[in-house]
Write a structure and sequence with these properties.
The complex is a heterodimer of chains A (150) and B (389). By secondary structure, chain A is mainly beta. Chain A has two helices and nine strands. Chain B has a single domain, classed as 3-Layer(aba) Sandwich (Peroxisomal Thiolase, Chain A, domain 1), CATH 3.40.47. Chain B is built from 13 helices and 13 strands. In chain B, strands 1, 2, 3, 4, 5, 9, 10, 11, 12 and 13 form a ten-stranded mixed beta sheet that branches. A two-stranded antiparallel sheet of chain B has the order 7-8. The chains are: A mainly beta (150), B alpha+beta (389).
Chain lengths: 150, 389
């Protein structure tokens, strides 16, 4: 990596699409929590089912507005990939980079997608323990993941 | 099985294709390509274009059915239908919908078409340069996970992890498709054979996919004509009868941010049993299969979910020898498919499946009676189809 890349404060360069709540507001709480460096997902107040991404009803018992629940941000790698081909213009000089799917055992094993921080050429092992890292951008906060030393 | 089935109620009686181009090289507009493919399919079937009274397509085809009906001067459009969902998941579904319209008496002669000129519109393999993103893509795009290659790679990796699969299995699929394209002069990769060394040395797109694990991006159009049982019997071509068609999606397969509970799946676990039940056959009865290759990993899981091998039997089954014409246990993608013939969103696979029934494939499976198509694995909804003689 070049010096400019290692000194980058965010994992991927600027210019990626900025995440924003859906127009109908269904997932606003997730983004507001991330801004506060908290991880919040839906959990049905009636039947306890976790749900991510958010929806207006619980897919299990169909109760409306399932409610929000703060989770620990501890998870394990469920799958991963090293991306070599830039599919977005902002990534032209950012490859390779690592994408992980993380399963959250304390949130009903819902999954989140993010980048695995650190060396993009590191060996990645499925089931490795990771924790959420909140990466602040000007208009949004991304949820990234780093390995937890065992 | 309910008596309400499309089995043997309709047949593919005509197929048409434009020349297949590399992306951006179509010399005429996408809509004109669509019309040319339809006219060729009519000619192949031996019908007048004005005999068409139904239209079906998929993947939000830009070439509006009413504009097509108007351009063709159809006297009476009785059925127009779009299969929900993007990608190639609706290819067989559009054929199934056409057959259902015929079985129900909505229409007598339905055309299914798909036209693509990626040079004239956006590309599938590129992410639009948007400033903000919301909805499900907001949970993946900002992290550089935005293309089909990238989500199918994640699911393929998980499957490989769970079932001890190595690169050899998916490489064999790519090599089989390229092998078959070498017999097919229509194929964009005709005359460009692929070796394992070339595969291994090709660049990674996203691990575990090399360049040759990924479909091409092409321009062109394809069309298929279906007709009623009575009409199909005495037309110009041997009819390829619709033996079974299935479409749909398994439990929460559309969940965002990779939250489909059954993760490393092609999404055929509930469809394939319905397909076989309607056809009244078993996997061993299938003579030849066209399995949509968006990416080789999704072909692998589709073969499993259609019962050709067990999840833990992939390494044994997915070999070049087993998957290739003329001696393989199950020759797949005998025209070269999306990897090496043309990425016409899988409609070219349906045409090839019909050719196998007619006996006119460039890799003709001897005495092929039962010909399968699997459309758009690892998207939602998906669809599949069985044709027979």
């Amino acid at each position: 990596m070049s010096e400019t890349e290692t000194s980058r404060k965010t994992y991927l360069p600027a210019g990626m699409p900025v995440p924003a709540p859906a127009h109908d507001g269904v997932d606003r709480e997730f983004y507001e929590a991330a801004r506060r460096h908290e991880l919040a997902v839906q959990r049905c107040g009636k039947c306890g089912t976790f749900q991510f991404p958010a929806e207006w009803i619980c897919h299990k018992c169909h109760a409306t507005e399932p409610g929000w629940h703060r989770v620990s941000g501890r998870g394990r790698i469920y799958s991963w990939e090293r991306v070599w081909h830039p599919a977005h213009p902002a990534l032209k000089n950012a490859c390779p980079y690592l994408v992980v799917v993380v399963e959250l055992p304390d949130a009903g094993n819902i999954r989140m997608v993010g980048n695995l921080l650190g060396d993009p050429m590191q060996e990645v092992k499925i089931d490795s323990e990771v924790e959420a890292v909140f990466e602040d951008h000007e208009h949004a906060t991304l949820v990234q993941w780093r390995l937890v030393e065992s | 099985m309910s008596e309400f089935t499309v089995k043997d109620k309709a047949a593919i009686v005509g197929v048409g294709e434009t020349k297949y181009y590399k992306r951006g090289q179509a010399p005429v507009s996408e809509f004109r390509l669509a019309l040319e493919a339809i006219l060729r399919a009519c000619d192949d079937a031996g019908i007048r274009p004005t005999d068409i009274d139904g239209i079906a397509s998929y993947s939000n085809d830009r070439n509006d059915s009413v504009r097509v009906a108007t351009a063709l001067g159809l006297p009476e459009l009785r059925f127009s239908n779009m299969f929900w969902g993007g990608g190639g998941g609706g290819g067989s579904g559009a054929i199934g919908n056409a057959a259902a319209a015929i079985a129900a008496g909505y229409a007598n002669c339905v055309v299914v078409y798909r036209a693509l000129a990626q040079g004239q519109f956006g590309r599938f393999g590129q992410t639009p340069a948007l400033k903000t993103i919301s909805g499900n893509p907001a949970y993946t795009w900002p992290y550089g996970m935005s293309t089909p290659a990238q989500w199918i790679a994640l699911r393929t990796r998980r499957f490989m992890h769970e079932h001890n699969v190595t690169q050899d299995a998916i490489a064999a699929i790519a090599l089989a498709c390229y092998h078959h394209a070498q017999f097919n002069p229509r194929a964009v990769m005709y005359g460009r054979p692929l070796t394992r060394k070339m595969y291994d040395e090709s660049r990674w797109i996203v691990e575990p996919f090399h360049l040759y694990d990924c479909c091409m991006e092409n321009d062109g159009a394809a069309a298929v004509i279906l007709a009623t049982r009575d009409r199909a019997r005495d037309m110009k071509q041997r009819p390829a009868w619709v033996m079974a068609a299935a479409q749909g999606s398994d439990f929460r397969q559309g969940a965002g941010a990779e939250n489909n509970p059954d993760y490393a799946t092609s999404n055929f676990k509930t469809l394939a049993p319905r397909l076989y039940a309607m056809a009244g056959i078993e996997p061993k009865d299938v003579d030849v299969a066209q399995v949509y290759e968006n990416f080789t990993g999704a072909v692998m899981t589709s073969l499993v979910e259609h019962g050709f091998c067990a999840p833990d039997g992939v390494m044994e089954f997915c070999t070049f020898e087993n998957l290739t014409w003329p001696n393989g246990k199950l020759p797949i993608n005998t025209s070269g498919g999306n990897l090496a013939e043309c990425y016409m969103h899988g409609l070219e696979l349906i045409i090839e499946a019909a050719r196998q029934i007619r006996g006119t494939s460039t890799c003709q499976v001897k005495d092929a009676e039962i010909s399968m198509v699997v459309s758009g694995p690892m998207v939602a909804p998906v669809s599949d189809l069985i044709l027979h003689r």
